[in-house]
Amino acid sequence: MDHIDESPLTVEEKANLALLEITDRGILTGVTDEEKLVGSLVIPNTVTEIAQKALFCCKALTRIIIPNCVTKIGPGAIACCTGLTGIVIPNSITTIDEYAFAYCSSLTGIVIPDSVTAIGAAAFYKCTNLTNVVIPDSVIVIGGHAFAKCPSLTDIVIPDSITEIARAAFADCPALTGIVISENTTKIGCKAFSGCSSLTRVTIPGTVTEIGEYAFSGCSGLVSVVISDSVTEIKSEAFSDMSSDVHFTIKSELVKELLLNSGSNIRDEQITVEPNL
Predict the structure, then answer these.
(1) How large is the C-alpha radius of gyration of the chain?
(2) Region 159-185: what's the mean pLDDT?
């Protein structure tokens, strides 16, 4: 989304503008007094980068409009803005860095533009009211813990551009009821979905070769897991701390052996082998 609100600035927005610290190179580096930065902030179109922790802990901000000349949101740039409910990210942004929006506890939804190729580690960590996220196919990297501990997040579609789901990327999202794993995914990392207790069904596509340690540990609501025969490695306790009613449908005896030897306390009667799956 590259729309920039061109209506005249309000008195509040003009006052906020005066608090910004911007270098001659167009880098927003900070504010003179974060407590005075309140309400709506319209970042001027002279800014090309929002630097590390530039708007960190500006708790009274409720809305930020970023111009389409900004290409990078740096580490922790907008983290801990606990009053932030809305943000416009333009399609000039290519990188959302680590912890960029972490702890923005009032943020309910976000649309990531299709210019973004990387979402950094813990970028949306502990955004406790975040319910929905749209991740475009342009994103090729989702960092570890990127959406971890987002207890209001209900569903997520992982785009076809993603080949690896990083460590704890969606861990401890207890409201997450549905996930769609891309057909191009080859690895599900350690603790990727651990603690997602509302998940009921998971299908591991035929491109995945590795399921990491504790990947689905604590997904106590799971009743059905379908695993293709492409999987050659199921690491320790990948499916531990689950309901005894969960059922696994798999395609080969090899995958069955991997499951039974994964230390997840899975019983033989919980597994059905269907070669024509």
Answers:
(1) 21
(2) 94
Predicted confidence band of residue 4 (pLDDT cuts 50, 70, 90): very low
Q: How many CA atoms lie within 13 A of 8 on its CB side?
A: 2
Name, in order, each residue with C-beta under 8 angstroms of 257's C-beta and a sequence gap of 6 or more.
none
Which of 39, 45, 82 lies closest to 62, judged by CA?
39
Give residue-wise pLDDT tens across range 145-158. 999 999 999 988 88
Distance CA 149, CA 91 (A): 27
Q: Are 28 and 47 in contact (CB under 8 A)?
A: yes
| Superfamily of segment(s) 1-153 | Ribonuclease Inhibitor (3.80.10.10)
Locate 205 and state its tokens.
Answer: 């596509």
- Above 50 in pLDDT, residue 227? yes
The answer to whether 158 and 133 are in contact (CB under 8 A) is no
Residues 6+ apart with CB under 8 A from 221: 197, 198, 199, 200, 243
DSSP per residue, 162-212: --EE-TTTTTT-TT--EEE--TT--EE-TTTTTT-TT--EEEE-TT--EE-
Tell me the pTM: 0.91
Domain boundaries, the chain: 1-153
